[in-house]
Amino acid sequence: DIQMTQTTSSLSASLGDRVTISCSASQGISNYLNWYQQKPDGTVKLLIYYTSSLHSGVPSRFSGSGSGTDYSLTISNLEPEDIATYYCQQYSKLPWTFGGGTKLEIK
Amino acid sequence: DVQLQESGPGLVKPSQSLSLTCTVTGYSITSDYAWNWIRQFPGNKLEWMGYISYSGSTSYNPSLKSRISITRDTSKNQFFLQLNSVTTEDTATYYCAREGYGFAYWGQGTLVTVSA
Description:
Chain A is mostly beta strands. Helix content of chain A is 0%, strand content 50%. In chain A, the strands form two sheets. In chain A, strands 2, 4, 5, 6, 9, 10 and 11 form a seven-stranded mixed beta sheet that branches. In chain A, strands 1-3-8-7 form a four-stranded antiparallel beta sheet, with no helix packed on it. By secondary structure, chain B is mainly beta. Chain B is built from no helices and eleven strands. In chain B, the strands form two sheets. In chain B, strands 2, 4, 5, 6, 9, 10 and 11 form a seven-stranded mixed beta sheet that branches. A four-stranded antiparallel beta sheet of chain B has the order 1-3-8-7, with no helix packed on it. In chain B, strand 5 and strand 6 (58-60) form a beta hairpin. The N and C termini of chain B lie far apart (39 Å).
């Protein structure tokens, strides 16, 4: 299985900050990488698909980038509703696998 | 709008089978996409369990392959998860989700506890 690693398990930032969350794959995944947001009540939403494509309805302050094995999610101008845990997920090779999550908190 | 809703027992005894239903509204499960089950363990690790496609084909996580079955009832626009021979390690929140350019739609999740 492809292992997805989010080395930062928690991150503290201030409102208005630019935040970057990283994710690395155990082998190249050819940009087949999605990002999800999970709120404290368990609700999960797709933010970014195929590394950098913004899912419908997602604010433009979210963006994604990366290639090969290393990917990142950037939130510009952090807002209170962005407090959540963020997960990456690869769909290059079955079984699909997720990173361990990065919990974002307000400083 | 596409909505998914999980339902089923919240408590299952060890060695028994776990059975969950995902009811889909706003889109036919036979039109397109893959319809998935994903679970989240205590401690928040997410595991993709498997899917049934719009055509009825299935794919399962090899870690579960001998215990899992995903089926559907197209007349009710529902798909189902059955996980056999459960242990306490199967305690998790179970989500159903539609896949197509990512898991774009998720249910709210249902907690299943395996305990005697």
